[in-house]
Amino acid sequence: MREVDASGFKVLVADDNEVAQRLYKRVLEKAGYPVLIAADGLQAVDLALGQRPAMILMDVAMPGIDGLEAMRRIKAEIPGMPIVIASAHSMASDRERFLAAGADNVLSKPFQLHDLISIVEQLANPK
Amino acid sequence: MPGPGPTYASRAGILARRAAPLAALVAVFLFQTILNVDTVVVFPLYLGAVLMGAILEERLESFAVAGVAVLALLFRPLMASGHTSEIGPAVLLSAVTLGVGTVVNELTRHSRSVAAAAQQRVVELSAAERSLRATLESAGVGLALAGLNGNWLEVNQPLALILGRSRDELFRTTLAEVTADGDQAALRDGLALLRSRDVMSWSADVHVVRPDGAVLPSALLIARLPNPPIGDATLLVQVSDISARERAQSIANCVAAVRQVIVSSSAVDAAMPQLLEAFSGYLGWSVAQYWAMDSETHTMRVRNAWNTGGPILEGFLHASRGMSVAFGSSMVGRVWKSGVLSAEEDLEKASGDERLTAARSVGLHSAVAFPIVDSGEVTGVIELVSDHARILQDDEVTRLATAGVEIGQFIRRSETAQALKRSEADHRAIYEHSPFGIARISSGGELLEANPAVLRMLERDEEAMRQTAWPELLRAYDQVATRQRKAQFLAGITDGSSIQVRAATSSGKWLWLQLTATSIPDANGRPEHVLVMVEDVTAVRETSDRLNEALEAQREANANLERTDRTKSEFLSIVSHEFRTALTGIQGFSELIRDGGLESDEVHAYGGYIFNDADRVNRLIGDMLDLDRMESGRMSMRTTDVDINDVLMEAISRAAPSAVTSEFKSDLDARLPIVAGDRDRLIQVVSNLVNNAVKYSPEGGTITLSSRVDGRFVLISVSDSGIGIPPEEIGHVFERFRRVRSGAAQSIPGTGLGLTIVKQIVEMHGGKIWVESALGHGSSFHFTVPLSPEAVKAMQQLQHA
Question: Based on the domain organization, do B397 and B467 belong to the same domain?
Fold first, then answer.
């Protein structure tokens, strides 16, 4: 794991599972990305529009509005906002479904930590 | 007679005649003078001359002649004067001469006037006869004088014409011989009466026969003339040709007979022989044949024939029967082609018609053929053949042509009627015997007629059908039509539209009848009545209903299968999601720990997360296996006597230590009977409900457990004062993975299988479970467990006591 100075590349994590929130926060902050946490869809939309993170890691199965609806609302306001769907719905058809819904990338749960890091890095340092 | 020749000649004759006596006197005088003959000697000569003059001449002339003779007689005596002796005799002679001359002249004149009178009478007589003869000849009728035996004495030309003979030929016959055989007896009687002077005149309508065999109807009048002074008595015979009158009468009779037949007959085959008989009988034709068109071969063949009888006709009839006449060939074919009457007076001249020329050789003479015409088309020909010469008169031609048209119309009418009758009979038979019900309905909706099939179907008689069954059917039709958005029976009468209705038979059997209505328009195109076809489709309908049921069941089964399938894959998807969610923490944190470099408190915390999620995964697996065993009926229950109050207390004691913010209350029926059940499972149920009550009361609150008897059941309730269940979720709380995750409940952990398992266990005990909740005011879960049979018995005994 490289230490990168990525301060300013703020990642919004939207996940209702506390353990998952802790994991994201621990791993991404260690990698140098400031992390914002939203516990449900509406909160995710509020934080995305209010805080303007660099990207969003979005769970799907969340109380209130789900991740896909939250993504639709955010993209309606900020079309260029990179959103990665990170879901335990990780069948092949799910992946297609998320991409079709407008996701920039998909991360299947459970994931290996370097997969998480590299997805975020790709967006942080586009070639 | 005018002309100079004869006049001159007669005048010359008269002069010669007048001069002759004078010339004779001169000759005698000269003879006497020259020969000097004595007067007495020549006196006879003078007297002769005077007589000649007296006979021939007029009185004056004869006196002149006599005077001259006297002078001649006296001349010699006077010349010889002296011979007085001669004078005396001369005077005497002169006187005799004068006297004789005068007398003779007078006699002559008298006889002459008598002769002239006679002559006059002769002239007058001959003029009278001439005028009489002229009258006779110019008479419009045949006139003749005949002897009392009927021998011709005088005949006029018209009579010769009527009898078809010259006068000379006629004189060789008698009245009887020119009379037809049938009338001869009457004629004989008539002549006998005239001979005996019993009657002076006799008249009768008879037929006279011409040499060619033609028979002519005639009016005969015979009058006996007054007996002449000399000779035999004669008869005046008057014969008038009444053939025109007869013919007109015959034709009129024939036409009347034809019309009578046409009016009174319905079938052509029955009428045609009568028609032919009328032509033959009234118009005097030996044979009458009807040639009808054979539309298949396009020829004409004899269909009916009539004849007056006799062997000579047989051959002809036979030849005709065997014959097919082509369009345009032979007389019949020509009439067919031209459409106008054709007549042949002498069949010998029937060129190109061998049948008719052959007929001539057996004694048939004339023929006529006229077309049977219908709407300008020749449909047949009637042929009439006579055994004697027949000349067709204009009125006959006209009448036959007219008859042809009338017969043509009759045939068409008759055939149409026949066809109609046949077709009606056919339709009637179809109607009567049809397995389909057929009903005729007026435009007002009343039943006019229903065939036996309809009556059989509904087990009604016609009256009941009309009064009740049909109106019911009509109502049913309209109801169904309205439901199906079709036109009502009378409103629309949509042709061929079918509607199935329920109808009861009189014995109460229910049928499905399919009604198909077709409107029958009248001549003006307005719907006159409606034909309704009634089909009993009960069997079809029931079969199709059963089929539909089977199909529905199949569809249901398929849908269930699909649902099960979908549920299964949904379940899989949900389960894998639950597992992966739990594994996300386990995998992530264990990877962090594995990679090292952590603070020990971090390792401690991460180990806790990993443990919790691993435990959750384990519980998930356990719940799922439980559920699967229960749903598949493989879970066994260890049924014992269970004290529900004990179960409730046990559940509270298990939950209480970890539920520090909640207060437990119990409202237990102390006299609660024992139930039969699996104690551990019942504890599981109550514990689950209690744990939920704790979980969904994050602010704390009171959790109340109660028990009481409800009929044959024990009713257990677990109530909390927590966040409650949203109304849209309350119907789904017992479904798998159906966790309320909105609002305050979103972070409450659980597998989502707890209530599903609870419900299964309650139902396995024969009880029911339900929930009441108001959002923000807590929830109450109630379930029942049946009392054991012993408990029920004990309760009943208690009640009796």
Answer: no
Answer whether B585 sits within 8 Å of A23, measured CB to CB. Answer: yes
The complex scores an ipTM of 0.89
Question: Do B643 and B790 have their domain in common?
Answer: yes
CA A16 – CA A23 distance, rounded (Å): 12
Q: Give the integer Cα–Cα distance in Å for B73 and B41.
A: 11
A64 touches chain B (CB under 8 A): yes
Q: Which of B92, B127, B162 is the last residue of a domain?
A: B127
User: Is A113 close to B591, i.e. CB distance below 8 A?
Assistant: yes
In whole angstroms, what is the distance from residue B347 CA to residue B385 CA?
9
Q: Which residue segment(s) compose the domain that B785 sits in?
A: 636-798
Write down the pLDDT at residue B610. 92
Question: Do both B415 and B280 map to the same domain?
Answer: yes
Touching A: B residues 120-149, CB under 8 Å: none
What is the pTM for the complete model shown? 0.40
Burial of B573 per CB tally in 10 Å (0-12, 13-18, 19+): middle
Task: Look at B587 and A22 and tell me if their CB atoms are within 8 Å.
Answer: no
A22, B609 Cβ separation under 8 angstroms? yes
**In this structure, are residues B100 and B47 in contact, taking their beta carbons and an 8 Å threshold?**
yes
- B40, two tokens: 């007495």
Nearest-5° Cα angle at B785, B781 to B789: 165
A 94-123 residues with CB < 8 A to B? 108-113
**A61 to chain B, closest Cα gap in Å:** 9
d(CA B449, CA A5) in angstroms, rounded, equals 103
Contacts of B592 in chain A (CB under 8 A): 23, 26-27, 113
Q: What is the CATH number of the domain that holds B718?
A: 3.30.565.10
B751, amino acid identity: T
Strand ranges of the sheet holding A105-108, from the earlier edge strand across to the other edge: A35-38, A11-14, A55-58, A83-87, A105-108
B571, B584, B591: best to mutate for the A interface, most A CBs within 10 A: B584
- Give the residue ranges of DSSP H helices in B341-393: 354-361
**Is residue B63 a contact partner of residue B102, using CB atoms and an 8 Å limit?**
yes
B783: closest CA among B707, B727, B702? B707
Residue reference for tokens 């051959």: B315
Token pair 């923490």: residue = B585
Convert the pLDDT of each residue in B679-730 to its tens digit.
Answer: 999 999 999 999 888 888 878 888 999 999 988 899 999 999 888 888 888 8
Count of pairs with CB atoms under 8 A, one residue in A, one in B = 74
Contacts of B747 in chain A (CB under 8 A): 16, 18, 39
**Residue B495 · residue B518 · CB < 8 Å:** yes
Q: What residue of A is the nearest CA neighbor of B570? A: A89
- Does the beta-carbon distance from A61 to B577 stay under 8 Å? yes
CA distance A112 to B588: 7
Angle, helices B311-321 vs B354-361, to 10°: value is: 170
CB B383 within 8 A of CB B288: yes
Contact B584/A61, CB-based, under 8 Å? no
* pLDDT score of A3: 44
User: Nearest Cβ partner of A16 from B577, B613, B747?
Assistant: B747
